[in-house]
Task: structure prediction
Amino acid sequence: MKKKQFKAESKKLLDMMIHSIYSNKEIFLRELISNASDAIDKLYYRSLTDKKVKIEREDLKIEVSLDKENRILIIEDNGCGMSDSELENNLGTIAESGSLAFKTQEENKKEEVDIIGQFGVGFYSAFMVSDEVTVESKSIDSEKAYRWVSTGADGYSIEECEKDSVGTKIILKIKEDNEEESYSEFLEDYRIQSIIRKYSDYIRYPIQMEVEHRHLKEGSKDEYESHVETETINSMIPLWKKNKSEIKEEEYNQFYHEKYMDYEDPLQVIHTSVEGQVSYNALLYIPSHAPYDYYSKEYEKGLNLYTSGVMIMEKCSDLLPDYFSFVKGLVDSNDLSLNISREMLQQDRRLQLIAKNIEKKIKNELESMLEEDREKYEKFFAAFGMQLKFGIYNNFGMDKEKLQDLVLFHSSTENKLTTFKEYVSRMKENQDKIYYACGETIAKIDLLPQVEQVKEKDFEILYLTDYVDEFVIQALMNYDGKQFVNVSTGDLNLDTEEEKEELKKENEKSKEMFESMQKVLEQEVEAVRFTNRLKNHPVCLTASGNISLEMEKVINAMPTDEKVKAKAAMEINAHHPIAEKLKKLYKKDKESFENYTRVLYAQARLIEGLTIENPTEISNLVCDILSK
Ligand code: ADP
Ligand code: MG
Result:
C-alpha cells in the first residue's frame, strides 16, 4: 500500500515525540482519552440537533484494554468516529493546538520539556511510547470503516477495514524497554488505572477497564483465585463540580493549561457555585499574561457553556463584557435547556442573569486583588489594563463608573501607580481639581514647563503615558465630583488675586507686541501672552478646546488622512529675561524680533514633542543668534 508523508510541520512535531527525552511520558494517555471524550461530545451534540442520530447517553463510554504479552494498549470510544478523509486531515496535519506548542518550541529548544508537560500536545504524543500506532475508525456519516497505520517517521497508510460500530479504536504497540527507558509500566493495569485517575478523573464519560481481583478461594486459607470485572476508573465529576476544598491549586492549574493552551499558570482562579434564581457553577481564570493575539481582531472572547455537564457552546461571548474579555473559563448550569439554539440562547433571561453575576464576580475579585495584593494586581494591570481603559471610553462611557476604580496611573508624587481614589485621598485642602499631564514617559512629563506651577503649589499631578489615557479622562469628565484638568490647557486659576491683576496689566501693556508675534507666526497660535504658569522655563504652549496637544500627536500618528490641530496659545514667562529682551527688540530691531518669535515658537513645539515644519530654517536662525 502506498505510504503517505506527514505535512512538514506535523513531521517536526512527530519527530519531537518519537525522540522525546521527556520523563513524563504518561500524559499520552491523557491526550488520547481527551480526544475520545471530545469525539463522544461531538456525537452527543449532534444527536441533539439531528433526529437521525440516535444514541443512549448511558451507552457512551471509553474502554481501555491491555494485552501484556503482545505489548498492546487499546483505547476505544463510541464517539463520532472519522471518515477516511478525516483520518487523513486530522491525523496527517497537526491541529492548531499542536502547532502552537510547536512554534514555542522552535523559539526556545530548552523549553521542550515544559511544553510537552503543560500543553495538550495531542494525538502524536502516542509516539512517545509506541513503535506503531493503528487507528480504526467508523464515522457516524460513513458506511465504511478505515484503518490508519503509522510507525512514525516513514509516513502513514489508510485502508478500508472491518468495524461494526461507530467510533474509534486506537491500538498502540508499546515500545520495548531499553537501557535508558522503560515502557513496560504502560502495560500494567494498576499503572494505567492510576494515570487515568490522575489526569482524566473528571472526564464525564465512564472510562472502563477490565480489572483482575485476587482473593482467597472459598474455604481455603492459602489458595487464591482471581476473577475479572469491568470497572469504571474515573469519578466522572468535573473539576468545577467538585468541592472547592477538595481541589488542589495544581489541579486548577493543570486543567487551565490543558484546556486553555497556556503554558504559564493563571494569575487568579475564580471558582463559584451559585444557587438562586438561576443556579450555576463557574470556573474562571485570569491569565497572567495577554495571549499573543489579545489586542488583535483575531482574538475571540467567551466562556465554554455547559448544561448538566455537557458542553453546548464552545465560546459563549455573551457571558463576558468586552472589558473582561481576557477571562477564560466555563459556566455550567442545569437550568439551561440542552437543545436550545444559539439565537434563542442569546435572548435567554437566565443566561443574561448569569452574565451579570459573572461580571460582578470578576469585578469584585479584581477589587479585592487591588486591595489585598497590589503586586499581583499590577501584574494583571500590565497585561490587561489597556482593556479596562478601552472599557471606560467605549460605548460612550456607559460602563465608566464600573471601571473607574480599577485603573492605575503614574503620579508626580508617588513612586508607584495610583488609583483615582488614592489621589483624591491625598488632595490638599485648597485643591478642588484633579491635575494631569500627558507625555510619552514619566521623565518627559516631569520636564514639561506646564507641570512647574502645579508642582510649586504642592498639588499632585497624574502622569498619563498611554495613548488612550486622555480618552479615558475625557470620558470620565470628573471623579468623585472633582473635575479633571490638564496642566497644559487653559487657565489653571492658580494665581492669587494680586498676581492675576499684575499679569493682566502686563498683558495689556504688551498687547500690540503679542499681536505682531501672532502675525509672524502666521496665526499658528490663537494668542500670544505672558503667563504665571512658568517658573524657570521661558515658553510653553497651552491648548484650549477639546483637542489637547497630546491628542494632536496621537491622532495624527494614526494611519488616517484626517489630521487635527489643537487650538493653542503660546505663553511666555513674564519673569524670564526673554520677556524683557522681546520688548526691547520689538521697539528697536523688528527683524531680530521676528526671528526670536519664530525660534521661541519652535522651542515650545519641541518641548511638547510636536514636530516643526521648518527645522532647517529654525536651526539657521538659532545659529545666527548664537553668532551675534
Ligand atoms: P486536538 O485534540 O487538540 O484537536 P489532537 O492531535 O489530539 O488535537 O487530535 C487531532 C484531531 O484528530 C482531533 O481534533 C480530532 O478531529 C481527531 N481525533 C483524534 N482522536 C479522535 C477520536 N478518538 N475520535 C474522533 N476524532 C479524533
Ligand atoms: Mg487532543
About this structure: The two ends are 93 Å apart (CA to CA). The mean pLDDT is 89. The pocket of adenosine-5'-diphosphate (ligand 1) is lined by residues 31, 35-36, 39, 77, 79-82, 90-91, 95, 97-98, 120, 122-123, 168 (CB under 6 Å). The longest strand covers residues 207-216.
